[in-house]
Amino acid sequence: MRIYTRSGDKGETSLIYGxxxxxxxxxxxxxxxxxxxxxxxxxxISLIEQEEFSEKQRLIRQLSTVQTLLFHVGAELATPEEKExxxxxxxxxxxxxxxxxxxxxxxxxxxxxxxxxxxxxxASTLHHARTVTRRAERLTVGLKDExxxxxxxxxxxxxxxxxxxxxxxxxxxxxxxxxxxLTESSSQNx
Length: 190
What we know:
Layout: E1 12-14, E2 20-22, H1 26-48, H2 56-77, H3 91-107, E3 115-116, H4 121-141, H5 152-173, E4 179-180, H6 184-188
Antiparallel strand pairs: 1-2, 3-4
Helix pairs in contact: 1-2, 1-4, 3-5, 4-5
């Protein structure tokens, strides 16, 4: 199979079922942003694989599952409104993220300040994935009237929370301090 088709050379692409739309169509922006999140998570997994900590294998499995589910979200976003979505998220996918967030939270100190994205490279990569997930969510909200019975928006919302907590967990597991946001008064004292 050839990678290039030349069918998009004039600024259009095909949705699922073949409907042609402009490459800057909101659906394309939304599923393209989910693809971007997926690639960033893949990079984070590569970084996590280089480290040793107690939750490593569980975390890699979970992030790989998230990557698969992001393909499901992308497929849903790439399906025209008038067509049937063949891959749909289920409430259990959101519940699983919530349960894992709660479990990771047990390991972590309470937050009483904002933290800055950073720390270990894998953690900062997941913070990057989190911010791109928020963009995917904002774009998907623009499609909410077309997404009948869709769980894409709540899934993306919960995924960004999961990525935040997971980034914190990695820093904690690898002994890397979180970077606390300095308040105006504390930054003047330095």
